[in-house]
Design a protein that fits this description.
Layout lengths: L7 E4 L9 H10 L4 E7 L11 H7 L6 E7 L7 H6 L4 E5 L6 H10 L3 E6 L17 E5 L15 H11 L5 E5 L7 H7 L3 E4 L1 H4 L8 H14 L1
Parallel strand pairs: 1-8, 2-3, 3-4, 4-5, 5-6, 6-7, 7-8
Amino acid sequence: MTFDRSVKIAPSILAADFANFGAEIEAVESQGADWIHVDVMDGHFVPNITFGPAMCAAIRPHIKTVMDVHLMIAPVDPYIEAFAEAGADVITAHVEAGPHIHRTLQAIRASGAKAGLALNPGTPVEAAAPVLDLVDLICVMTVNPGFGGQKFIHSCVQKVTELREMIGDRDVHIEVDGGVDPTTAPLVRAAGADVLVAGSAAFKGGSVSNPGPYGENIKAIRAAAG
């Protein structure tokens, strides 16, 4: 991974065909995806269950871009090494997922992955301030984590603006996750985000046998973001 602030579209495989992940990933990458976003949920920290390190290891060979693993699990620390070994390029943990977020971020970096910090809609921007020099990415949740297809929370755009100012000239990506589509993409991009996670907005209308709509969706989000 190299750092830049250009717009990066990260389709979330939560919206893909679960029975055909490898082919779905190859299809969406061929249609312009910059990163692949992997939502890991445990049914405890968030009210849904998805998959774990074994699934990440299985799909890793199909990912030619960046494997962006978002851990919505608690406790998170015992699983960092397993997800790193599964091939995660970025591992993101939530502030509330353990008692010592500073230690969690240190562990992610020690594993060889880039360290991400996720802020829920109810988590203040100030929570990121003490660890800014330990993160490579801050993920601003613009929905409450746990399910795809939720409505974008517009008040979270201000959080992106505040984070961009707080980050200054540090090489830290600002990612936005939740309800990103051509309508909301320009709002978060103008506020300072550079990684846009899109689930249903990226995968709608297409399939492995008909991937063209994936490309059209990605182009529309990218064009709207400017």
